[in-house]
Amino acid sequence: MEQVVKHMTHWLLKKHLIVPEQSEWCHYMLMQSTMSILSGVWGSVFYTATFRILRQRTGGYHARTPHGCLLVALVLQVLFSLLAAATKDIYVSTTVILLSEVAIFLLGPANHPELHLSVKELKAVKPRMYVRQAIVFLVYVVALLMHQGMIASCIAMATFAVAVLLAIAHVDDGEIHRFKKEQANPKEVIRNHE
Questions:
Q1: 55, 57, 85, 87: which is closest to 73 by C-alpha?
Q2: Residue 83, phi then psi, degrees to nearest 5
Q3: What is the pTM of this model?
Q4: Residue 163 CA to chain centroid, in angstroms?
Q5: Phi, psi of 11 (to 5 degrees)
Q6: In which element (H, E) is residue 11 found?
Q7: Residue 49: how many CA atoms within 13 Å on its side-chain side?
């Protein structure tokens, strides 16, 4: 990285885009910018990987159309990536990931109506979900120990996003069942409201 920035600074000097007195300042600014970009890229990679690893076993809210799912995923990634970038305090990140892990443990896995998982299949998924939660938390701790706060924060926020989608799925599931009952027995619903 240092060599690349050195070559960039030398190229800027050669093209007379900076003067020799600015070379040290330019080198410093290029190094800072490059490190910020790489940190953001790695944060996004870890956010996406964490989200996918957990989501595959926990389930959660699904929009009614594929475009809706894509939109929800995009909004969540942008929102929680911004939160991760804003969260510099490791105590906040640690609290977020611990509370999210507990929520996932209690709420997961969610059985979306389109998946039609049996009780036996749900029981088989639970241990795998717990293993993935443990792996994600271990990677979070390693990131903290390696002083990679941005990566740790992205892992924490991705875990939080999965927990939020699980909570929404449980609320949505209750609404789905209530709606189905109303459609099946509209007279009974009317009597209950009177």
A1: 55
A2: -60, -40
A3: 0.72
A4: 10
A5: -65, -40
A6: helix 2-14
A7: 14
User: What is the DSSP track for 82-115?
Assistant: HHHHH---HHHHHHHHHHHHHHHHHHPSP--TTT
Exposure on the CB side of residue 146, measured as CA atoms within 13 A: 11
**Contact of 143 with 152, CB cutoff 8 Å:** yes
Contacts of 41-45 with CB under 8 Å at 24 or more apart are 42/148, 42/150, 42/151, 43/81, 43/84, 43/85, 43/150, 43/151, 43/153, 43/154, 44/77, 44/81, 44/154
Q: Which residue has the tokens 């924490």?
A: 156
pLDDT digits (tens, 9 = 90+) for 70-125: 888 888 888 888 888 888 899 999 999 999 999 999 998 987 666 677 888 888 88
Reduced to 3 states (helix: H, G, I; strand: E, B; else coil), residue 35 is helix
Q: Is 147 helix (H, G, I), strand (E, B) or coil?
A: coil
